[in-house]
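Reopening this ticket.

The earlier resolution said the output was attached, but the attachment link was broken on my side. Pasting everything inline this time so it's all in one place.
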Amino acid sequence: MSIPTQMSLVGFVASAPDLHFTKHGAECCRLRVGVEQWRKEVDGSFAKLDPTFHDMVAFEGTARETYARFRKGDSFVASGYVHEYEYEVENHEGASVIKEEFVARKIGHNVNKTDYLVQRGRRTAPENSPTPVPEPPPIAI
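Inline output:
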């Protein structure tokens, strides 16, 4: 059995997350994200290039958590997929362009670039367990 995988995106939040509702009442969070770009040089070193910027969107629970937990400048890792759509250009009758956005199904802070404290919820003992499971202490990362 193969490992189920999804597309991922690693970057930084370039604009403040915007939470709103779709016309069907679903929560939607939109934001611009930046992706750092690097080029490997002949001598084996890496040169940092200008970042690229993209649209990202999340829905329902992921939208709520993204809006609540992320701020401009935060580094993230997200899994999801790229959604292409046609967009009509204003003031250009009949003209349209193809745009794309990354739809984040799951998102979290990038542990390689973010210091944070993990606070785990209280764990309960499995059914028929003779002793309760102790609550672990918070982990500083």
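Reporter confirms the inline version is readable. Strands lie at 7-13, 18-21, 27-40, 46-59, 75-88, 96-109, 117-118, 139-140. The first strand starts at residue 7 and ends at 13.
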